[in-house]
Predict the structure of Pseudouridine synthase.
Amino acid sequence: MTESVSSHAEPLMPLTRLNKFISETGICSRREADRLIEQGCVKVNGTIAGMGVKVSAADEVSVNNKPLRAKPAPVYLVYNKPIGITCTTDPEIAENIVDAVNYKKSRIFPIGRLDKPSSGLILLTNDGDIVNKILRAGNAHEKEYIVSMDKPITADFVARMAAGVPILDTITKPCKVKKIGHNTINIILTQGLNRQIRRMASYLDFNVTSLKRVRIMNIDLGELRPGQWRYVTESELALINAMISDSSNTEEASQLEQPKAARSGPRIKDVAQPANRRARHAAQPHSPSRKPSRAGGKAGAKNGPSTQAAGKGRSSSKGSLPKNARNKRP
């Protein structure tokens, strides 16, 4: 049962979870707000608040006996992330994106992420609700990349990348792929699995040598140089809001890399592997089979490999599936 100490709110005034209400003022993250609440540092209308409390703008909230300042105006930035910058708000991590952008007027955080060795467009904001709607995989918002490989691009590679590749215990959604250079492709995704493009290429025995994001939805990187940022324009924001008007939302902020959000495809073991992979597998010595169990039909389940949490294994240098992702259902 959800607790609430809100006593001054009007009946129709919307309620917000206390941790979100605090984080939206810019003083800390939701996780940090949770710690403050657990430590008894937060009061609502003069009463120490507990976890799960919901409040409205009419409530008086204080942190460490200091009144909470008003929620700042929403901020939306377009940033050209250079290679080497880490997409985290953790101040303990060197070259984190918040320090790199150095925006002083409000606490901001990235919408999704780009790997440290990748570059290009990333959005930053202090608006948690828009983050949820843009990032959720089911909302299918486009993200466009220019990617170079370590060898020439073939028609077969383009076709297979576009059709979907088995990674992280799922099959990637069909995407748009076009060869634009000897070893370079343009690829448009509508999902954001962890290191998705690099894993897809690795599975097909290609290695990414450079990856640059040039578009998110209707926002283009344009002429921004690495390290530069600009504000999202009013017309761009209006179109974003129109595009996400029917998007699903969650109260807790979503992350860009969510393998579970994409696990609606066929099982990996049902997908035919490349011929060179089958050949390597056939060449490997097989361990002696175990004696059959007296349980009969249940022996296979007991003798099979143990399973772990899906989506957390790393691809090997050959691009093979992680051990903890083999023979598992999505």
